[in-house]
Amino acid sequence: MHYECIPTTCTYCGCGCLVVLQVLDGHLVGVLPGKTNPVNEGSLCIKGWTSHEFVYSEKRLKNPLVKKNGVFVETSWEDALDTVARNLKKIKEESGADSIAALASAKCTNEENYLMQKLMRATIGTNNIDHCARL
Amino acid sequence: MNRLARELVHRMEALKNKVNELLESGGIAGFLGLRNFGTEPFPFLFTRDTAAEVDKITTGAVRYPLSKILIRIAAVYPDAIFGIMCRACDERAIIELCKNSKLRSDKVITIGISCTDDLVQACKCENPQPSNLVSGEAGKKEFDRSDVQKIASMTLEQRFDFWTEQLGKCIKCYGCRNICPVCFCDVCTLEDQPLVKRGEIPPELPSFHLTRAYHMAGRCVDCGLCEEACPVDIPLRTLYRRVRESVKELLDYLPGEERDKVPPIQVLGDGLFEIRD
């Protein structure tokens, strides 16, 4: 018998609301709005209130998928990243760096988003970088 | 150290002793209260396995819906007896939850905590006096219904405009329902399609909020957690307070205040259809 609350930051957008994960016997069973945080002051939006639901979702991707002959096939991270790198290189050689664009995500941390633009600008060589909120 | 600080320290020590005593004697399987995580209080279930954590117990200045959390834990451990830290509002909620078969009164031991005068005033608490106080005295009653009176003094047209503006701010986060200790249905009308369209804000006015207000009749214990959780500051508590007053006027029932009275909404007609387990 074990119940505790783990405070963390909501993963959905850049606001940074305090969500409190309710863990009962090792299972994430719900969230509560953090009452002591100056950002959300005890409130959440509907995404924050349901931010625990994807964790055990059957639809959740647990392994990288690579499309082979028109069908997604489970593969290792190494293979998936090799495929991406090989194809990006090929596209850049054939059509130039500006034929590539990347969309970063508000669900990532500032640091991850910084790395994404760094990858695009410094490695690929394009300014075609934007984020999912403008999709 | 001033009087208030001394009282708080004394209260915290008394609570720690009480929880340790109950856990050691085997009188309870767990005690649901607040634990300091770093410097901030969050809900925690103290058990014999986590008895060392009792040192971090706190009464905190913030309120979490402990009674609602207990429903979830008790559903997994229906035979266990639990202790729970209770402000007066928590206790009112537990009384209603027992009447609605969500908790069993013989499986819950409430340990009363008095609220500080500041909290009582901020909450405009109708009755800040829980039973079984662990230490100290209960706060004084501060019932202030000026919010309800202010709206009652408006003309119908002004009132309609007021509520249309307030409810029009709703972003349909469902926070009022989610945090409410007496909102416990498995299936919620507010998610019933096509009554409530998905992906549309604000929800249909005023039916969305009035539906919830009707469902609060005979249940709302006036804890005010809904209003605290509302991201757009809709005066929800004022709305439900009016419903609470109507139930008192029409059916002579104040939810959470009368331990032995059958809730009027549970009895239809001659009582043949009383809701049972």
Main attributes of the structure:
heterodimer; A: 135 residues; alpha+beta; two-stranded antiparallel sheet; B: 277 residues; 5-stranded mixed beta sheet; 10 helices
Write the SSE topology.
The complex is a heterodimer of chains A (135) and B (277).
Chain A: E1 3-9, E2 18-24, E3 27-33, H1 46-49, E4 65-68, E5 71-74, H2 77-95, E6 102-104, H3 110-124, E7 129-131
Parallel strand pairs in A: 6-7
Antiparallel strand pairs in A: 1-2, 2-3, 4-5
Chain B: H1 3-25, E1 30-37, E2 40-47, E3 57-58, H2 66-76, E4 82-86, H3 88-99, E5 108-112, H4 117-123, H5 146-152, H6 156-167, H7 175-179, H8 207-216, H9 225-229, H10 236-251
Parallel strand pairs in B: 1-4, 4-5
Antiparallel strand pairs in B: 1-2, 1-3
Q: How helix-rich are the residues of chain A, as a percent range?
A: 25-40%
Give the terminus-to-terminus CA distance of chain A.
45 Å
Query: How many distinct beta strands of chain B?
Result: 5
Using the 3D structure, state the CATH architecture of the largest domain in chain A: Single Sheet
Taking all residues together, what is the mean pLDDT of chain A?
93
Shape of chain A: extended
Q: Please, how many domains of chain A?
A: 3
Helix-strand sequence of chain B: HEEEHEHEHHHHHHH
- Report the strand count of chain A: 7
**Secondary-structure content class of chain A:** alpha+beta
Beta-strand content estimate of chain B: 5-15%
Cα end-to-end separation of chain B: 51 Å
Name the pair of protein chains with the most residues at their interface, and give those residue counts.
A-B, 26 and 35 residues
Q: CATH topology of the largest domain in chain A, anyone?
A: N-terminal domain of TfIIb
Structural class of chain B: alpha/beta
Number of domains of chain B: 2
How would you name the oligomeric state of the polypeptide chains in this document?
A: heterodimer
